[in-house]
Write a structure and sequence with these properties.
- The protein has 261 residues and is an alpha/beta fold.
- It folds into 2 domains: 90 residues, 2-Layer Sandwich (60s Ribosomal Protein L30, Chain: A), CATH 3.30.1330; 152 residues, SPOUT methyltransferase, trefoil knot domain (Alpha/beta knot).
- The chain is 36% helix and 18% strand.
- The strands form 2 sheets. Strands 7-6-5-9-8-10 form a 6-stranded parallel β-sheet, sandwiched between helices. The chain has a 4-stranded mixed β-sheet with strand order 1-4-2-3.
- The longest helix has 14 residues.
- The N and C termini lie far apart (46 Å).
- InterPro entries: Alpha/beta_knot_MTases (IPR029028), rRNA_Methyltransferase (IPR051259), SpoU_MeTrfase (IPR001537), tRNA_m1G_MTases_N (IPR029026).
- Keywords: Methyltransferase, Transferase.
- Pfam families: SpoU_methylase.
Length: 261
């Protein structure tokens, strides 16, 4: 392949070959939009339809239209499809540099904290993890921490999070490494969430979709809380549980710089 499109393709393949663990796939227009909006370093971005992608920017993200125009290179659809595991309807893809772990750890440890940290204790579902990161970014949470083996920067998680990993601190830690702050863990045997005020420095912990809280996280918890639920309903989806809890926190006062809409 020759011409202007050849350089980004070679750059893409070089980054994939040499940047294991440091670059992440931004899958689709919205993931790229959010990454650029929140300051991600994006070495390469391609699209099978540049005109359509920039039209989306005009309609949905005029604030980042200019940097997107500078980043996006059009390539043949077959070339685009060869670069990604699953083509996105917007035919846009990019590679971004993952934030340094040290920077995320510093953000999680910063005090005083003005918004909670969400902890997913040994989650199993990649899509659920992505949805939680998207929620946490929307609520202005300090960050999302996972325990266990799931990689919170897995491409499927980044896709589910719509690129909003770059709007909050996302890391994997052991239970004993969790940020300081009172730990409020969600458990069916806990106190009704509606009767508790969640402080801004709370660590909000949610168990895995099947097994619930681990013994280590339960032992670390300062408070057990339960979500209101109709009898005989088994459980809520993980992302729904996080949304309900963050909304409850937000009703006591929303951090400045965020919007309720």
């Amino acid at each position: 392949m020759t011409g202007p499109a050849a350089d980004p393709v070679r750059r893409w393949r070089r980054l994939v070959d040499t940047g294991v663990g440091t670059v992440v796939l931004l899958d689709g227009f919205h993931a790229l939009k959010h990454a650029v909006r929140f300051g991600a370093e994006v070495p390469v971005a391609v699209t099978a339809d540049r005109e359509a992608a920039l039209a989306l920017a005009d309609d949905l993200a005029p604030d980042v239209r200019e940097p997107l125009a500078a980043l996006l290179t059009e390539v043949p659809r077959a070339t685009y499809e060869a670069l990604v595991p699953r083509p996105h309807p917007t035919a846009v893809a990019a590679l971004a540099v993952r934030p340094p772990r040290e920077a995320n750890l510093a953000a999680l440890a910063r005090a005083p904290r003005r918004a909670p940290v969400v902890v997913l204790d040994n989650p199993r579902n990649l899509g659920n993890a992505g949805a939680v990161i998207r929620l946490a970014a929307g609520f202005g949470a300090t960050g999302v921490v996972t325990t266990g083996t799931l990689d919170p920067w897995h491409p499927t998680v980044v896709r589910g999070g719509a690129g909003l990993h770059f709007a909050t601190a996302v890391e994997r830690l052991d239970v004993e490494e969790l940020p300081a702050g009172p730990v409020f863990a969600l458990d069916p045997e806990g106190d009704d969430l509606r009767g508790v005020r969640l402080p801004d420095d709370a660590v909000l912990a949610f168990g895995s979709e099947r097994a619930g809280l681990s013994a280590a996280l339960r032992a670390r918890a300062d408070h057990l809380l339960a979500l209101p639920m109709r009898p005989q309903v088994s459980s809520y989806n993980l992302a729904t549980s996080v949304a309900m809890t963050l909304y409850h926190w937000s009703t006591a006062g929303f951090p400045s710089g965020t919007q309720r809409t």
